[in-house]
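$ fold --in a.seq
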Amino acid sequence: MSLVDRFARRRCSTAEALARTATRPLDVLPTGEAAPILGFDRDDVVTRRLFDLGFTPGESVERLRRAPLGDPLMFRVGGIEIVLRRAEARRILVAA
């Protein structure tokens, strides 16, 4: 079990609770809206890097703005601003 999975299981009571919760990918979060991070759609090197940057389950994330052509997107998480490509943001699941 990966570190991300262990942390997600600790922050969310069970994996089933995450499955029952309505989720959406972070890239569809409207500008100016905030939502809690619930988990990730897969476990790989990119997901681990997002986790290291502060995108941890239970943390609130706010979409600040997007570039004129729609990519990249800027978010605030843990008091810092981070720019992600849309494909990276799509891996992060937030509350619907």
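$ fold --in b.seq
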Amino acid sequence: MAELKDHDAEHDRLHAAGADHQHAGEHEHEHEHEHEHEHEHEHEHEHEHEHEHEHEHEHEHEHEHPHRAHGHAHGDHDHGPGGHSHPTGVKGFFYGLFVPHTHDAADSIDDAMEASVEGIRALKISLVVLLVTTLLQFVVVLISGSVALLADTIHNFSDALTAVPLWIAFILGRRAATRRYTFGYGRAEDLAGLFIVVVVLASAIVAGWQSIDRLFHPQPLHNVGWVLAAGVIGFLGNEAVAAYRIRVGKKIGSAALVADGVHARTDGFTSLAVVVGGIGVLLGFPLADPIVGILISVAILILLIGTVRSIGRRLLDAIEPDLVDRAEKALREVEGVVDVNHLQLRWVGHRLQGAAEIVVPDDAWAGAESVVHEAEHHLERAMPNLDHMAIRVATVTGATL
């Protein structure tokens, strides 16, 4: 930094003395100075014969944030004018169940490795819970001979295995970036989320098909009491897993883990359909089971749209507007910053990366380095899930604080 300041001071001295700047008509002088480490500076000067001139400096500073514990609290945030709203009433209730808010995300876990570890832990625990649930249901299938419960048991077992690709994705996401994958492997998490969506879709279609078949080809149920008990077990096991996955997914900012939680929740309601159908059979209405199954399959398909939209937006580098507002607000609060331009953010798995240009007055150029560091600290406090932010400084003559 000292070398840069000496270089600029020498340039100003030569310019004031008129050395090497005597040209006819309009004069131009361009020079570039690069540091081998983190700083890149560009200076452009246009000098006319009246000695009127404008200065524009650009300073690019890239810094990777380790985001260990900072000892700060993170409060609630609002969506602001650029945010979004959610349905209310009955529709809002089901929206909250099956399309949970995924960007409340990452306000508690601010270290990439810690977030991945917590995500893997959630997958391990939920996998064990689902396998135990499936085993208990299978025992009841052997006792009751219920084909509907057998289908639900197979369904739950196959769904439990969807934790495996997401588990692999979390492990891949911890690998360092390479020359081929310069952004790392965080996208594997979103691809796993897409796979989960496909599995949920297939499960809904299969459940609907079985329900339609049962509607036209009714079959008697035996040991209905055991079937009801197994349905309750399936619902409780899936709902426990759903709540846990969604909570951890929102905590670490993983849309894929949230999607897997939604998947478990839909499975829970599918198991509950077995209970409702069994009650209908006990009341003398044998078609209750297939009718409820069809309705739940349709509901799953409708509510799955929200999850598909969330995963799709991640894959297209969409970002929640309130996160952009939060980052811009943090940068504008830095002393010396008069404007923020070209702010960009993107999700890579459950972590954020981005770039921005901050504008400072021309006479504040000498302190640009400290302004950049202060901007980084503001971003760390406002967005602890931010892994990397490239900040460029631009100065224009006439800008005022």
